[in-house]
Amino acid sequence: MNDNPLLSTWTTPHGLPPFDAIRPEHYAPAFEAAMAEHRAEVDAIAADPAEPTFENTVAALDRAGQGFARVAGVFFNLTASETSDALQAVERELMPKIAAHQSWLSLHEGVFKRVEALYERRGSLGLAPEQLRLLERVRLDYVMEGALLKGAARKRYAAIAEELAGLFTTFSQWVLADEAAFCLELKTDDDRAGLPEFVLDAAKSVAADKGIDGYAINLSPSLVDPFLTYSTRRDLREKVWRAFKARGETCAERDTKPIAEKILRLRAELAGLMGYANYADYALVDRMAKKPAAVDDLLMRVWAPARARALEEQKDLEAIARGEGFSGLIMGWDWFFYAEKLRQERYALDEAELKPYFQLERMTEAMFDAAGRLYGVAFKELKGVPLYHPDARLYEVSDEASGAIVGVFIADSFARPTKRGGAWMNEFRNQSRNRAGGYPYPIVINNNNFAKAPAGKPTLLSLDDVRTLFHEFGHGLHGLLSNVTYNRLAGTNVLRDFVELPSQINEHWALTPEILKKHAVHAATGQPMPDEMIALIKKSEHFNQGFLTVAYTSCALIDMAVHQHPNPDRLDLAAFERAECERLGVPEAVGMRHRLPQFRHLFSDNGYAAGYYVYMWAEVLDADGFEAFEASGDAFNAELAAKFKRFVLSAGNTLDPAEAYRAFRGRDPDVGALLRGRGLS
Domain range for residue 401? Predict the structure, then answer.
């Protein structure tokens, strides 16, 4: 029996990783063994004396590397969700080796020769549609990862990929270190002035985590935002806001700007090797948008009305501030504070009064309920199974009609110093029927960073938190409801500007009256949310949309601009960011949601590089798609839900995304739905 749990047979329920047995020292030998096994499998495919067929080449490639995927699934999830100094050291050591392994796979001439031979005669192979789609995707993967390169260019591509992997790790770890290092103690009653009970509860939990007897603020957005909203101490709001915006550049030894600049130079070089003018051109080849011009067209269509609306909102906030005797300029640390006052004035909607209705426990039940109504799935919590952290919760997901297991879902909801910021979905195992033994269904995880309430009290969510909860669960459903044959086409392995459709459309069901009336129950009184409050939520849905749209769109525009920079060798990241904000006219009081020195979407991997726009691209689809449900008069219309499940959630990457959307909606999307959804038209 192998004493390395990562390499032994897992006898755990549903084939879950044996989390309680895994230690940091297990990863290096496990990866070494798994990569050796993977290389042997791929070499065997290339050396097969038989003529290449779909089964002995493409399907075999899709099956290869299961051991590697298993080890990597544990490793990458835990480095994001529950890291440590020891695990970060392992990460720094292993990432270049893993990148080298991936480059070896993508540049394997023998395998690519067989794939190319099949691709050239694909029309005569009699392939089923899913098989043809897999062949086309695998061939494109190879081409985009340098398979057509020769000689020195081929070697340089591999070297760049390896170097980037190390830089991504450094960038992520340094931003996390900045977030973990910040702590603002609220020592006096004056320090805590204006803060409602739910903020104080969260601050008390933060303090306890840091060994402080009292209250403290960290840089979790779930705590930063309400602190900026309610604290009457303008000096402390400024301190928190500046610390949040300065992540990645708080000290010289963790300054991420040189790291990001080097990443951009290497990406530009890589794009040049591949024959593209810039990295944006290269990145968009396998996206729905295809060209940067299409992205810029969409973003600028939104930018002008959003900026105009934000400036109007700023004037409204200044009027509120003047009415309270404040005569200075509205700054970033003032916006949330006065926006909340304005919201209360216009809509009689107080976040502090609203928040007790959004208990995490009940809203988790709400998202399960909505999924059940729409897609016929049921969730049952499994207790007593060891996970990697006490806060993580495990659910078995089944088909309501047949009782068959659909997948396994892990909810990891709370912020902690060992978890990176933000919210995301990932998988310990994807869905696939092309797997030698084991389980065909997935293990999906949702990570959030909600501020945890003290023991004995319910964790309360903001409206934005509720949307985030449902957003990530939309990704989760995309993984859980996948029903395809091949690993490469499963679940969220779709084009990047299509992958946000399931997540963003799922947000709409969070605030439907059917869900709110049943699950939005006051934490103290047990009373359901009043109809009047539900109506006010609907009435106020366009409030502050100028601010929110500018904060996001500025990031997307600057992402595209920096990845089209004409001379990245001379790029000064800070100067570039300032110049672009000036060029666009980003209001100083709004700013960017993510400044470049902390922009993990761009610099923690390549996934969203020249791709942050995808949220807005997908919003065109989700806004238009949900309008179909609204037009039917039933937010849970069974026919539409069945089509969405069949053509989007279950189809994975077996269909072209434009075709998949048309199959669901019956037509192409209407861009105007996005503007209507944001109240900008």
Answer: 358-496
Provide the b/e sequence for 239-264 (b: ≥16 CB within 10 Å): ebbebbbbbbbbeeebebbebbbbbb
- The question of whether 472 is a catalytic residue gets the answer yes
Inter-residue contact 613 to 497 (CB < 8 Å): yes
- For residue 483, what are its two tokens? 């029903």
> φ and ψ at 434, to 5 degrees?
-100, 55
**Count of the separate structural domains present in the chain:** 4
Query: What is the number of other CB atoms lying within 10 angstroms of the CB of residue 369?
Result: 17
The 10s digit of each residue's pLDDT in 234-248 is: 999 999 999 999 999
Domain boundary residue, one of 461, 496, 531: 496
Pick the catalytic residue from 313, 472, 580, 627: 472
On the CB side of 370, CA atoms within 13 Å amount to: 28
Q: Looking at the structure, do residues 344 and 363 belong to the same domain, yes or no?
A: no
Rounded to whole angstroms, how far apart are CA atoms 77 and 488?
A: 19
Question: Do residues 34 and 71 lie in contact, with contact meaning Cβ atoms separated by under 8 Å?
Answer: yes
Contact 384, 394 (CB under 8 A): no
373 burial level (CB within 10 Å; 0-12, 13-18, 19+):
middle
Task: Say what the pTM is.
Answer: 0.94
Please tell me whether residues 366 and 490 are part of one structural domain: yes
Distance CA 461, CA 361 (A): 10
Within this chain, do residues 43 and 17 fall inside the same structural domain, yes or no?
A: yes
Helix (H, G, I), strand (E, B) or coil at 445: strand
Contact by Cβ (8 Å): 42, 58? no
Q: What confidence tens digit (pLDDT) does each residue in 473-519 have?
A: 999 999 999 999 999 999 999 999 999 999 999 999 999 999 999 99
Q: Are 320 and 445 members of one domain?
A: no
Name the nearest CA neighbour of 580 among 288, 572, 241. 572
